Amino acid sequence: PTRGVGAKSLETLAGWARERGMSLLGALSDPEVLSVVRGRAKKGLAEFAGLMESLQEFRDGDAGAALDAVLERIDADRWFAEMDVDGNVADREANVEELRTHAHEYDRMHPKGKLRGFLQETALVSDLDQLDPNADQVQLMTLHSSKGLEFPYVFILGLEEDLLPHGRAIEENPVSGEEEERRLLYVGMTRAQKGLFLSHAQQRRFFGDDRWQRPSRFLAEIPAGATDGEEAWESEGEQTVLGEYDAGEEAVALQVGQIVRHGHFGVGKIAQLVGSGVNARATVEFHGVGSKQLLLAYAGLEPLT
Fold it and tell me: What is the dihedral of CA 102, 103, 107, 113, to 10 degrees?
């Protein structure tokens, strides 16, 4: 969040710290530094120094707890509300929520990693200006960043509906949005010189919920005979793979057309039910959110009708 600290105040702070061989954060802990800063920035820097001091206890703890503490102490919900001047803050909120999910998942999978391990794993530095395409190593980048580059082998992951094409692009403009997403995939595919590998997940975790994924519509557009390997997207539908819906003895019986409530997405209407046991899933049309596929074993849907 902004704290009234402008470029001039930062320049003053940086000069003061540089003369004494201190880091910016280290300089903030020195009461003398506030004497060289004026106006609103003085209060903002003092508040920021206090915030950083209060977060020190989380340095060696779990990543999820540290991130939760940061979001709570900066009052993230209020900050997002203040930023939402044109109704386009949803992407930022979703990114933060996904980061929280990843942090807690990291703690579960790597209990000894803690915050430092999480940061080492996720702080991937991408400096494409210094990228050496001929280096004998894996290069990780977005499809946008790959434009103009070539590699012997290219792996494109996450070819699933709502990811590629991205759900928001389709919602904003079904025609031009889909076409732009198709062009983006084409850019990635044509980066490969010798081999191209395309993959999609059957199950993925979104915002703490595990859900089954539908293969990207773009996969079915690849000409027959142009690929080797498994082509489940051409031959297997949801009903064929998962079978008829069976709530089982312990699960709450649901019906297509039923109104339900989800803890994160809110109220929606069930559009489809397939599978049984741990594989049972529902496609729900949520108000203001769109269609979501949820694993019933984890979704915690509450029937309202």
Answer: 110
Mapping DSSP onto H, E and C, the string for the chain reads CCCCCCHHHHHHHHHHHHHCCCCHHHHHCCHHHHHHCCCHHHHHHHHHHHHHHHCHHHCCCCHHHHHHHHHHHCCHHHHHHHHCCCCCCHHHHHHHHHHHHHHHHHHHHCCCCHHHHHHHHHCCCCCHHHCCCCCCCCCCCCCHHHCCCCEEEEEECCCECEECCEHHHHHHCHHHHHHHHHHHHHHHHCCEEEEEEECCCCEEEECCEEEECCECCCHHHCCCCCCCCCCHHHHCCHHHHHCCCECCCCCCCCCCCCEEEECCCEEEEEEEEECEHHHCEEEEEECCCEEEEEEHHHHCCEECC
| Residue 140 and residue 149 in contact, taking contact as beta carbons nearer than 8 Å | no
**pLDDT interval class at 88 (50, 70, 90):** low
For residues 142 and 150, what is the distance between their CA atoms, to the nearest angstrom? 14
Token code pair at residue 160: 């699933």
Query: Model-level pTM greater than 0.70?
Result: no
CA distance 161 to 172: 15
Structure token digits, residue 15: 């000069």
Q: What is the 3-state secondary structure (H, E, C) of 138-152?
A: CCCCCCHHHCCCCEE
Paired tokens of 104: 């807690």
The pLDDT tens digits of the residues spanning 194-223 come to: 999 999 988 887 766 677 788 888 888 887
The answer for residues whose C-beta is within 8 angstroms of residue 121's C-beta and 6 or more apart is 106, 113
pLDDT tens digits, residue range 242-300? Answer: 567 776 654 567 888 999 998 888 899 998 888 777 678 888 888 877 888 787 877 78
